[in-house]
Amino acid sequence: MKKLHNVMLLLVLLFSIHAVLYAQQPKKENLSVLFVGFDPAVPVSEEIINSPAGTGGMSPERFREDMKTRYNAFESYLKEYFTTVKAVDVKSYKMEMSKNYDVTIFDQSIDPWEKAQYSPKYKPAKYLTEDFDFATVFIGHTAPLLGGSIGLKLDWLCLCLDADAHHLKSEHPIFKGPFPVKLTMVVKPTPDGIFHYESGKDIPKEIPMWRVQTEGYLEGKGYRLGLVSRGDGFTDSPDAEYISGGVSSKDVGAVAIGRHGNFLLWGFSASPDYMTDEAKQVFANAVVYIKDFKGKKPIARKYDDRIIIRTEIDDMIAKLNQESFEKFKGYMAEVNISMKEGVKKLSDKKQSGAKLTEMEESILEAQSQPIPIPTWEQYLQQTAQSFYKPEYLKNVDKLKKYLLENKKFMYYDEKGIYVDEDVKKLGIGNNDIKLLQKCITLLKSGKETELANAVLLRYTGMKKTAQEWEKWLTDNSSKLFFTEAGGYKWLIDTTK
To answer: Rounded to an integer, what distance in angstroms lies between the CA atom of residue 488 and that of residue 163?
Structure first.
């Protein structure tokens, strides 16, 4: 009897352990996922190992160490959450492979199908085609490398994202499920870089943050850097959404997690071995979330990641004063001190006989001389850019007035940002649908048809007759939107 009792106790104990372990395991989502990374069984060239674009800024030593586990860690982790998971090396990946999966995750950059062109005009290498409409997650630096040539807003603002998120949209679906998430927010000092931008003027000295990684690159151990994209203009089209920012050296609106069409940027760099438990749940939710955007390609394509949008005019105006000038000089002095310290460390390292990496050599060369501190005139020229005139040197208010009055008429192309005199003549801002209506009215009346056709072509990329324009506007007026990041164009919202 005692023996039977012991057996029963053992069974109950085993059942309890099994129940606890089972409860800790997420219920798998019926999803097929393709993971693309560096298979440790496939050799990687020294060129990639010593290139920030190849390693995400990770030190060569740390990269070699990380490569032994990262690929397998992602494969194992994904198999805990999803029913079907396939991991392939970057050299084996072909675009058609994504057809067979609900979501493709790029952890490393694949080989381009068309190499970069440097003459007569630079054209970036092409990795994906514009008709690539499969649900995709980019991890860190892979987003701009693979998406730049197809006009994604997931651009390379800065490879400087650390381990914490802030200003996250906690109501967003990736923080809700299907895998449960309890966000642990901790108030921490606001990243200093935020205060170097006008957008950081009213940001508190401390803000709530969410820990995404157990280690970040700022700890100085050579870990992989995350990436943030430009926030300015990011949400000026219905195909894009900001989800979270993160600790970086850039402005408060820089995008650490965001979506453009069928592509999702997970700017944080950690492999599952270095993700927090909460981040593991959120990343898995992000994979589930992007699945529903399969076939929903970006509408507003950002082919020029340096495009100047009108918020920069606001920043320009805000900086045109002596207070901002003095603040800028102080900042540049701090930068020079930091550069001097960094150069000394690298010089000492080199003199000790240690070999510098390619990146360290370039830093040593580029930062060996201090950055000149500008005069007020130089500062004004740098800030006002093409709008600068000598007469503004003693009358900055006149420049501010000009910028404010003409802001709605500004246009950007390969020449830079300037006032569109055609639009100014019509007296209607280019982001006002009344401009299109005015041009169509002119065409119908036979007045100033050359001007009207030029404006319509510039802001829609199309040519039509007056009757065709009228029908087009009637059919699409409720779906039209204006994008600056997408090239100062009126486009149709195809998500409606």
So the answer is: 35
Beta bridge partners of 240: 260
> Do 62 and 133 meet the contact criterion of CB atoms below 8 Å apart?
no
pLDDT tens figures, 341-399: 888 988 999 889 888 877 788 888 888 889 999 999 999 999 999 999 999 999 999 99
Q: How far is CA 432 from CA 37, 268, 301, 435, 490, in A?
A: 45, 37, 20, 6, 10
Report residue 410 as tokens.
């500004």
The 3-class SS string of the chain reads: CHHHHHHHHHHHHHHHHHHHHHHHCCCCEEEEEEEEECCCCCCCCHHHHCCHHHHCCCCHHHHHHHHCCHHHHHHHHHHHHEEEEEEEEHHHCCHHHHHHCCEEEECCCCCCCECCECCCCCECCECCCCCCCCCEEEECCHHHHHHHHHCCCCCCCEEEECCEEECCCCCCHHHCCCCCCCCCEEEEECCHHHHHCHHHCCCCCEEEEEECECCCHHHCCCCCCEEEECCCCCCCCCCEEEEEEECCCCCCCCECEEEECCEEEECCCCCHHHECHHHHHHHHHHHHHHHCCCCCCCCCCCCCCCCCCCHHHHHHHHHCCHHHHHHHHHHHHHHHHHHHHHHHHHHHHHHCCCCCCHHHHHHHHHCCCCCCCCCHHHHHHHHHHHHCCHHHHHCHHHHHHHHHHHHHHEEEECCEEEECHHHHHHCCCCCCHHHHHHHHHHHHHCCCHHHHHHHHHHHHCCCCCHHHHHHHHHHHHHHEEEECCCCCEEEECCCC
Q: What is the chain's alpha carbon radius of gyration, rounded to the nearest angstrom?
A: 26
Classify burial at 330, counting beta carbons within 10 Å of its beta carbon; exposed 0-12, middle 13-18, buried 19 or more: exposed
The answer to whether 430 touches 420, Cβ cutoff 8 Å, is yes
Decide: 41 and 47 in contact? Cβ < 8 Å.
no
**pTM for this structure?**
0.89
For tokens 């943050």, the residue is 209
Per-residue pLDDT reduced to its tens digit, 177-211:
999 999 999 999 999 999 989 899 899 999 999 99
Distance CA 147, CA 263 (A): 9
Nearest to 160 by CA among 50, 275, 286, 268: 268
| Straight-line distance from the first to the last Cα atom of the chain, in angstroms, rounded to the nearest whole number | 72
Nearest-CA neighbor of 406 among 469, 317, 333? 317
Measured CA distances, 133 to 155, 236, 277, 481 (Å) = 18, 21, 31, 22
Tokens of 191: 């990243």
Residue-wise pLDDT for 121-162, tens only, equals 888 899 999 999 999 999 999 999 999 999 999 999 999 999
Instruction: Work out whether strand 416-419 and strand 410-413 pair parallel, antiparallel, or are unpaired.
Output: antiparallel
Looking up tokens 């870990």 gives 223
